[in-house]
Amino acid sequence: MKTRFTFLCLVSLAAHSNAENWAHWRGPNFNGSSTERNLPVDFSKTNNVVWTTALPGTSAATTIIWNDSVFVSSADDAAKAMRALCLDRKSGKILWNQEVGVGYNFDEKSNFASPSPVTDGKLVVFYYGNGDLVAFDFTGKKLWSRNLQKDYGQFAYQWTYGASPTLYQEKLYIQVLQRDQPVHGRGRTDGPIDSYLLALDPTTGKEIWKQVRLSEAKMESHEAYSTPIPFEHNGRTELLVAGGDAITGHDPRIGKELWRWSTYNPNFITHWRLVPSPVTGGGVVLVCAPKGAPIYAFKAGANGKQDDSAIAWKSSEREVSSDVATPLFYKGKFYILKGEPRVAISRVEPATGKVEWTGELDTRIKIESSPTAVDDKIYFQNFHGEVFVVAAADQFKLLGTIPMGDDGDDQLRSSIAVSHSQLFIRTGHKLYCVGNTTKLSSK
């Protein structure tokens, strides 16, 4: 009996040590993938559900997980406020629930709780579209807070700001790519409106550096809702920033611009705001031009201002494109999700841009969540909370379509997070923790 108990303990410890945390909105590899195993295909609101927790409001933010702590950013629909929550991963119990700011939204499409939290395992940072930025330790003690609009000027966005923060190599990075003039009465009037990349000390919130990011874009095309993505290639580390009709790479130590390419908008169309973040894989960097325009792949390791010779390949216009969802890189392939009007996912070879397959999904409901890959499966949900499970394989295969949303859920954007062989699915007012409970209970 003692031997069996010891064996089970060792198995449990090994499983825990192999578990991958989901610390950033695009996961442990900043590309939407995880090495976790044993993820279910067969689940529902009741089947293979470990727990379900009610949430105070809606949010497009992705859930963040570190060991047994689950961090959730949420609006409070009743109080019209923003909240930061921590849940116990094993039970779904809310361990702490902090109000971090008053205010709710500017438009009917989203609210201030769109940015995802981020953690380094020591502290967790929550950020909101009204500029509130706050750090907590894992017990819920507030470490510091500040408001970026108060410190750097009111944001100049037509819609609600939604970029997520990035924690990398002991720095907190935030990008604000905004218009160069006020819009809808928003934007500073006491000086120039700059777009910028910001590095802060995560332990204090104090500025380390601020890098102004120039752009030749016009009007709304200045605006980006993308997130800075770390990238390492041939010993060089950089931060990739997409938006303002350009992609740039920056030195994460000092913010200096290392390289730049523009433009995917040669006609200077004025309404090309950018939503998808950059993604890397196979020695190339991907940026998605908006509104059905092509996807561009660039050779890694560039220096200085680039011309079109830096382009490794670009997709055919409207054949493979993404207006909102950030592409996925998994096991040597890109997976690119086109969320409307013909919803489809394509598998693309990184070196050449060859489309290996495109699978159409039987839905006309828009998809703006970004795909997550784990255990040779790809998960994403549409506006109504239908979760699609697609095989990450040599041929397209739809493994399942699972309705997880409730009545009234009609603009769900949260991407699905993975940790400890569990899926974390955020709907309008619920968080589901999904795992292979049948297999676990039969052991």
What would a concise description of this structure say?
This protein is mainly beta. The relative contact order is 0.14.
Write down the overall geometry.
globular
Strand order of the main beta sheet, please?
Answer: 14-15-16-17-21
CATH architecture classification: 7 Propeller
**How far is the N terminus from the C terminus?**
16 Å
Q: Can you walk me through this structure?
A:
- With 443 residues, the protein is mainly beta.
- It has a single domain, classed as Methylamine Dehydrogenase, Chain H.
- It has helices spanning 2-18, 148-152, 437-442; strands spanning 49-54, 64-66, 69-76, 81-88, 94-102, 118-119, 123-127, 132-137, 142-147, 166-168, 171-176, 196-200, 207-212, 229-233, 236-243, 246-250, 257-261, 279-281, 284-288, 295-299, 304-306, 311-314, 328-330, 333-338, 344-348, 355-360, 372-374, 377-381, 386-391, 398-403, 417-419, 422-426, 430-434.
- A 5-stranded mixed sheet has the order 14-15-16-17-21, with no helix packed on it. Strands 1-33-32-31 form a 4-stranded antiparallel sheet, with no helix packed on it.
- The longest helix has 17 residues, at 2-18.
- The chain is globular.
- The two termini are 16 Å apart.
